[in-house]
Amino acid sequence: MGQRAGYGGGLTSTEYVERFGQALDDGLDTPRAVQTLDELFQNNDLPDGRRFETAVLLDRVLGLELARDVGRY
What we know:
The structure is a single chain. The chain is about 55% helix and about 0% strand. It is mainly alpha-helical. The protein has a domain at about 15-60. The longest helix is centred in the last third of the chain and has 15 residues, at about 50-60. The N and C termini lie far apart (about 40 Å). The model is unreliable at about 1-10 (pLDDT under 50).
């Protein structure tokens, strides 16, 4: 897999970002990519901020606008 913008370190979880990218590189396996996102949501071992930032990064590819309503309610 080639280098992608936003990958590697910082506030994101590299493990989830790489798995997500591998799923999309593997014939645009969107169900596997979404499953990776769901596993990220379920991982309570990661700090909330890290999960949020990683989800927002992955959502930029999927275009679900998951963070759109954060803080509205």
